[in-house]
Design a protein that fits this description.
It is a multi-pass membrane protein. Belongs to the patched family. With 1274 residues, the protein is α+β, with helices and mostly antiparallel strands. Helix content is 50%, strand content 10%. Strand 12 and strand 13 form a beta hairpin. The longest helix is centred in the middle third of the chain and has 37 residues. The N and C termini lie far apart (110 Å).
Length: 1274
């Protein structure tokens, strides 16, 4: 900036006495300097009318930001009025420097410097009245723009006046050396000097002209007594111990004593529930036996029908909609955050797109700079000229990005898509909002290289870019620094660059020791269907290419992190694509295991005959077809899918399906075919035995997931629907297609044909002994007896109860949330960016307080309820937000809200030149911008009480002018750029939406984001309730907070009750279905439910220990855990309930050996290999929430199902079902009679490979049943 910002008018040296001011001269003095008014005809002054006009113009430039506090503005004018116009001027002013000037051909001696002597108390009082006056548009202090390099934090009365008297600031017409003299101090004063000792008004006082006291926003002394905040709730303590821990210990002790003192239950008479249980089992058994026999008899027809049904459903996949938008996944359409986001997007432009670099130079040495103006300053290594020049080169390279667009049929550059706040309609490249340190030099190498000699206090030194930098970071709104360089601090696009947008990693506003440079390119955020959306994405991809190329350059002196707006989505899509092979390998491992484990191997020669590769493949295909059918069905009816569904549902269905497959196949292999029984009848009879258990689990899971669809969270709801349908289809296909496949495989095996070569037969016949495999004998002979030993049972109960109570305690310490960096792969550049962001950024995200339709902003009461300047309500919208910033650790608000209402009032104030009307010409009476010099009519007259309020007509007339007025030196209150998009009016001119922008404190994790949202909502609700009391306000008027992150973090405010509801809706059907299908066996249902609850609670406890946060992804996995737990628990519970052995321990042993082996092989060993493979996934989300959490679920499910549950049943299980016992006794009696007849007739049967053994073997097996012989009343 060459020369002063305004034309300086300086006084001539004149020692004549003060003159009486009369007429127009008096009126002007009374208007400009009312504190000097002694009455018309008795008032003398030492200034001419021209000097008064010059003084008025000079005062306007500063008073425009002080007018909102009348006493401050009065004190500010008072200081300059007494030095310029006081009748005792010679006692206050000591001329120090003059120069000869030519004025209309006459040489005159002009004053260009003087000393002004004022009392320190007057100066301090004036400064105190102004130090808290705010600039609404920035939320900062006005004093920061009037104190040069010291800013608001280090400003004092002396520094404030020194800046005002420094002509190098471009505003002062001459140099004024203010000397602040303490009371009764006379030493060293020039002869005849009497320091001015006027009285400074307090900011909470009215002015002599009747203007009201300043508001609380601008004057702490004017603030009402605000009750202190309620203290944070104390942690729950019992004595000196954690209350939750004490309760958990009490519960543990009580449960331990309960089971230790529990008596055994002995059989009682047959009850109606036992008869109901028997009837239920016989009905289901006969139904499934008939069904299985039918399916086995017509395998090819069944497979064809199943294929047609699956294909019919799967065709819907052509219409599938895959939801990837996180908002649509995790935020319910009717949720508050979504409604508020929709309102914001409907009425306002979305947030601009951010493309950012954060650069450091850790190995660069720091240095000390001895500044003439600012003293010795420490500069960090990165604040060096060579690095700033390199940053400027990188910035210019990015700004020059160009590419051809076929859609636009032109070359596209940054200016076509950038955010240009001060010229949005026709932006040039320099109009684009680019925030960086070089902007303090207007991106000019010449300005960076500029140097000049400067003299201060007799010392001459060279000033350079460092002096300009120090000045600008402390006074970013300055149009000219106070150095001899005379450069502006404003960016080339016309706006200020606040220091927290240019540098980072500093403390206590010591910007010169910052550890990082920040460069931000802001682009317009177009909707996805907009023609320019692809252009923005293309520009951002080229931005990333340039930055990544720069990073690889060995000559780069920076270590930096970077991001583009598209980076999050790009990285998530990349990791999804890269992890697909991991999932495929996982499924392959599971398939290999199933194929190998299902085989029955009696000899090497029969290896390919007894293997079950095709059966295993068929089981996998059944799972795959059920998932495809489920996805196709919902695609038909228009319910979208998601990546979570694709990753979780197959695992869930595989766990359920594999378990059922193992139970069915192993039971078939272990069961002996009865005499005269065909293969198909054998399959049907086995299915009748095991299908009720399979039906119990599948129905429980289906109902569980269908009820889980009541969740309001879209991702959880869609997952529950897809999972429920997939489990249902899996059960139906197992009852049809898999039965048919097993029938075909049994036919092949009976014919001794090889599996992979059906034409090849093996001569060696199969063994006639039952094919129990390895696991069943091991569990029967070793594991079950060891587990159910008297001592081990007590140990198991104590250990698991301790685990349960510990997990309850740990639940209270579980973190809720999902940090966004976890969605990134470990090798993502975004992880480095997040680390830099949290470390170096000094301010949080902006948040808007948005008002809806129904509030009258044009009324005086309405204005007062919103504004924060003089005359406004003490608890207005703006005031309450300011109060909240006083407690940033509680409110998470750092900077008060910018208020368009306040700036509009200041813009209307006649004390500035912002709002004027054309005085003559064709536009007479129309708005005239401050840049036009020929407009003398003010929009408003000066109010007598200092409280300016427009009429309704004036409000509606001038508001559009304010919003479109570009701010400049003469009118910094113009609303273009800051407020032009903050107010939305309908066709009638009514304000239907407006917003007030504040800033959060730096938020680094999801817990802080959630807490910030909650506190902002509480504040907004408080404001809403107060504003609804204003006459004329609609009952549905609302103020709500909004920022881009709220829609993601809202779920964490309600996810705990949401999760409890979902878990309850999943657990309830498992209990109900179990009770019903076991014939109203309430005890079995309760024990079943208890074990599943313990698995779930223990899973949450381990989540706390392993650092797995609770969020929507965790909730989906916990819902899945319920489904998998049903498989671990329900089969064994049913087996125990239907056992007829005499004691609880023997029945528990039988259930553990028989059903536990199938569960272990079918659920645990099916899941574990696939889960372990997921540990190699790149995405942290998969490693944490799929590998870790599924591993925990599987291991805990296995431990509870195979360790805890048998012990629990041995203590608390239901007694022997006498109805079942009677039925078995009758059957055994009938069998014995039949065998006796067969022996007498000496009739022999020839059986195939799977025939039953001889009668002696059968009798041995029968003896092993140890049928009870208690007297039973029937």
């Amino acid at each position: 900036v060459e020369g002063p910002l305004i034309t300086p008018i300086i006084p001539c040296k004149d020692y004549s006495p003060a003159r009486l001011v009369l007429g127009q001269h008096y009126q002007r003095l009374k208007q400009v300097c009312p504190m000097l008014d002694q009455g018309e005809g008795t008032t003398s002054a030492c200034c001419s009318l021209l000097q008064l006009s010059s003084l008025e113009q000079s005062l306007k430039l500063s008073k425009v930001v002080l007018l909102r506090c009348p006493s401050c503005a009065d004190n500010f004018a008072h200081i300059h009025c007494i030095t310029t116009c006081s009748s005792n001027q010679s006692q206050i002013v000591n001329i120090t420097r003059t120069m000869m000037v030519n004025n209309s051909g006459t040489e005159k001696e002009a004053v260009v410097g003087y000393q002004a002597y004022v009392s320190k108390s007057f100066a301090d009082g004036s400064f105190k009245s102004c130090r808290n006056v705010r600039i609404p548009v920035t939320g900062g202090y006005a004093i920061a723009t009037m104190c040069g390099p010291y800013g608001a934090d280090h400003c004092t009365a002396q520094r404030w006046l020194d800046f005002q008297g420094d002509s190098s600031n471009g505003l002062a017409p001459l140099d004024i050396d203010f000397r602040l003299i303490p009371p009764d101090y006379t030493e060293g004063l020039p002869s005849g000097v009497v320091p001015y000792a006027g009285r400074a008004l307090g900011c909470n006082e009215t002015t002599p002209t009747g203007e009201q006291a300043c508001s609380c926003q601008d004057c702490k002394e004017a603030c009402p007594a605000v009750p202190p905040l309620e203290p944070l709730p104390e942690p729950f303590m019992i004595g000196n111990l954690d209350g939750n821990l004490v309760i958990c210990l009490i519960v543990f002790c009580a449960l331990s004593l309960l089971f230790l003192g529990h008596p055994f239950v002995y059989p009682m008479d047959v009850t109606w529930t036992e008869n109901a249980s028997l009837a239920t089992q016989e009905f289901l058994g006969s139904l499934f036996q008939l069904w299985g026999t039918t399916m086995a008899k017509h395998p090819l027809k069944v497979l064809l029908v199943c294929l047609v049904v699956v294909v019919a459903f799967a065709v819907g996949l052509m219409h599938i909609e895959l939801t990837t938008d996180p908002i649509q996944l995790w935020s319910a359409p009717n949720s508050r955050a979504r409604r508020e986001k929709d309102f914001q997007d409907r009425h306002f432009e979305p947030f601009f797109r951010t493309n950012q670099l954060i650069l450091t130079a850790p190995n660069r040495p720091s240095h000390t700079y001895d500044s003439l103006l600012f003293g010795k300053q420490n500069f960090s290594g990165i604040i060096s000229k060579d690095l700033i020049l390199q940053l400027l080169q990188l910035q210019e390279r990015i700004q020059k990005i160009e590419f051809w667009s076929d859609e636009m049929n032109q070359t596209v550059s940054l200016k076509d898509i950038c955010y240009a706040p001060l010229n949005p309609g026709n932006a040039s490249l320099t109009d684009c909002a680019v925030n960086s340190l070089p902007q303090y030099f207007q991106n000019s190498v010449k300005n960076l290289d500029a140097k000049a000699n400067m003299t201060k206090l007799g010392v001459t030194k060279e000033v350079d870019w460092r002096d300009h930098f120090i000045y600008c970071v402390n006074s970013p709104l300055s149009f000219k620094d106070i150095t001899a360089l005379g450069m502006s601090c404003m960016a080339d696009y016309g706006g200020p660059v606040f220091p927290f947008l240019a540098v980072g990693g500093y403390e206590d506003n010591e910007y010169t020791i910052a550890e990082a440079l920040i460069m931000t390119f802001s682009l317009n955020n177009y909707p996805r269907n907009h023609s320019k959306f692809k252009l923005v994405e293309k520009w951002e991809s080229m931005f990333l290419e340039i930055v990544q190329d720069y990073e690889k350059n060995p000559n780069t002196n920076f270590t930096f992190a970077y991001m583009a707006e598209r980076s999050l989505e790009d990285e998530i899509n990349r990791t999804t694509a890269e992890d697909i092979p991991i999932f495929m390998i996982s499924y392959l491992v599971i398939f290999v295991y199933i194929a190998v484990a299902l085989g029955e191997y009696s000899s090497c020669r029969r290896l390919l005959v007894d293997s079950k590769i095709l059966v295993g493949l068929g089981g996998i295909l059944v799972v795959g077809c059920s998932v495809l059918a489920s996805m196709g069905f919902y695609a038909w009816i228009g319910i979208p899918s998601s990546l979570v569904i694709l990753q979780v549902v197959p695992f869930l269905v595989l766990a359920v399906g594999a378990d059922n497959i193992f139970i069915f196949v192993l039971e078939y292999q272990r069961d002996m075919r009865h005499p005269g029984e065909t293969r198909e009848e054998h399959i049907g009879r086995v299915l009748g035995t095991v299908a009720p258990s399979m039906f119990l689990c599948s129905l429980s899971e289906c109902v569980c997931f269908f009820l889980g669809a009541l969740s309001t969270m879209p991702a959880v709801k869609s997952f529950a629907l897809y999972a429920a349908m997939a489990v249902l289809m899996d059960f139906l296909l197992q009852m049809t297609a898999f039965v048919a496949l097993l029938s075909l495989d049994a036919r092949r095996q009976d014919s001794n044909r090889c599996e992979l070569g059906c034409c090849i037969t093996v001569s060696k016949p199969c063994s006639s002994k039952p094919k129990e495999g390895f696991l069943l004998p091991f569990m029967r002979q070793y594991y079950a007896p060891f587990l159910l030993n008297s001592f081990i049972r007590i140990v198991v109960m104590i250990v698991f109860l301790l685990m349960f109570c510990s997990s309850i305690f740990l639940m209270f310490h579980l973190k809720v949330g999902l940090d966004q960096e976890l969605a990134m792969p470990k090798d993502s550049y975004m992880l480095e960016y997040f680390k830099y962001l949290y470390k170096y950024f000094e301010v949080g995200v902006p948040t808007y307080f948005i008002t809806t339709k129904g509030f009258n902003f044009t009324s005086i009461a309405g204005i007062n309820a919103v504004c924060s300047s003089v005359g406004c309500d003490q608890f207005s919208l703006s005031q309450k937000i300011r109060y909240a910033t006083e407690y940033p650790e509680r409110s998470y608000l750092a900077i008060p809200a910018s208020s368009w209402v306040d700036d509009f009032i200041d813009w209307l104030n006649p004390g500035s030149d912002c709002c004027r009307l054309y005085t003559f010409g064709p536009n007479t009476g129309e708005f005239c911008p401050a840049t036009r010099p020929i407009c003398w009519t003010k929009c408003k007259k000066t109010p007598t009480d200092g409280v300016l309020r427009p009429t309704v007509e004036e409000f509606n007339r001038f508001l559009p002018n304010f919003l479109s007025n570009r701010p400049d030196l003469k009118c910094p209150k113009g609303g273009l750029g800051a407020y032009d998009t903050a107010v939305v009016q309908d066709e009638n001119g009514d304000i239907i939406a407006s917003r007030f922008m504040a800033y959060h404190t730096p938020l680094t994790n999801s817990q802080e984001f959630s807490a910030a949202l909650q506190m902002a909502r509480e504040l907004a609700h408080n404001i809403t309730m107060a504003m609804r009391k204003i006459p004329g306000t609609s009952k549905d008027f609302e103020v709500f907070p909004y920022t881009v992150t709220y829609v993601f973090y809202e779920q964490y405010l309600s996810i705990v009750p949401e999760g409890l509801f979902n878990m309850f809706m999943c657990l309830l059907p498992t209990f109900v279905v179990c009770c019903i299908l076991l014939g109203m066996d309430l005890l079995s249902g309760l024990l079943n439910l208890l074990t599943i609850v313990m698995i779930t609670v223990d899973t949450v406890g381990v989540m706390t220990l392993w650092g797995i946060d609770y969020n929507a992804v965790s909730l989906i996995n916990l819902v899945t855990a319920v489904g998998i737990s049903v498989e671990f628990v329900s089969h064994l519970t049913r087996s125990f309930a239907l056992s007829i052995l005499p004691t609880h321990v023997e029945r528990a042993k039988e259930a553990t050996a028989k059903m536990g082996s199938a569960v272990f092989a079918g659920v645990a060993m099916t899941n574990l290999p696939g889960i372990v493979v997921l540990a190699f996934a790149k995405a942290q989300l998969i490693q944490i929430f799929f590998f870790r959490l599924n591993l925990v679920i599987t291991l805990l499910g296995m431990a509870h199902g195979l360790v805890f549950l048998p012990v629990l049943l041995s203590f608390f299980g239901p007694g022997v079902n006498k109805a079942v016992l009677l039925e078995m006794q009758n059957k055994k009696a009938t069998e014995m009679q039949n065998h006796k007849k067969i022996g007498e007739e000496n009739h022999s049967y020839e059986y195939e490979c799977s025939t039953i053994p001889d009668t002696n073997v059968t009798q041995t097996e029968a003896e092993k049943q140890q049928i009870p012989t208690q007297n039973t009343k029937l």
